[in-house]
Here is the input.
Amino acid sequence: MPDAIFKIFRGDRDGGELIEYQVPIAPGMVVLDALHYIQANQAPDLALRWNCKAGKCGSCSAEVNGRPRLTCKTRMDALPPNEPITVQPMKSFPVIRDLVTDVSWNYRVNRKIPPFTSRPGVEWKMYQRDVDRVQEFRKCIECFLCQNVCHVLRDHEQQEQFGGPRFFVRVAGLEMHPLDSLNRTELLKKELGIGFCNITKCCTEVCPEDIHITDNAIIPLKERVVDNYYDPVRWFLRKLRKRGERAPA
Ligand code: SF4
Ligand code: SF4
Ligand code: FES
Here is the structure.
């Protein structure tokens, strides 16, 4: 196989440039193998994250030819031959160095979400269909590729108002759990800004775990928010409840 030309971002939060490297390609190679080759032979100071090399830890996320991907799951033979391959850090997060970004904002969002809280006095029994429904959401490997591609974060930089698809997936797993007792619709509306999502499905397209983020998590959650806030009967009942709370004892 001919050598491949890589153009890799080298730099930090103050700026950088694409540097060219030539890599001999062997059958079965993935982009992460090429990055390791470069690190071993040409640029020992190239910074990149990885752990499992099996598509399970979610740490090798980057933009390959402009598309968010796990580098350990991107096969060289799936990329256009005889064209330089660009590898850049995820655009939605601040660069620390080279391909390593600061994703700590995601963990701050995560802390806003109340965890699973069981219903008191209910028998711990679940139907298989309920298990199957939430199981999809538990497949998330926190690669943050969906967060990276979502235009609300990537182009409009609404990090303060919007939680992003990864966290709608987490909330869906909790809200659709039959033994959970909390209602997170207020959090979804006010703090995670689910209304900003215009269901473009870009997040679903890049998810390496094939989670149907938009159809199975975001749309049902949006429906719950609408039911809770805009259903006229619920609206009237909420008003009555609030009036009752304000009435003198
Ligand atoms: S569907 Fe919503 S969350 Fe997903 S990328 Fe589009 S705007 Fe973002
Ligand atoms: S939902 Fe999919 S794309 Fe988003 S962080 Fe989880 S595994 Fe990655
Ligand atoms: S190295 Fe773990 S997902 Fe790629």
User: Anything to note?
Assistant: Residues 228 and 234 are 6 Å apart (CA to CA).
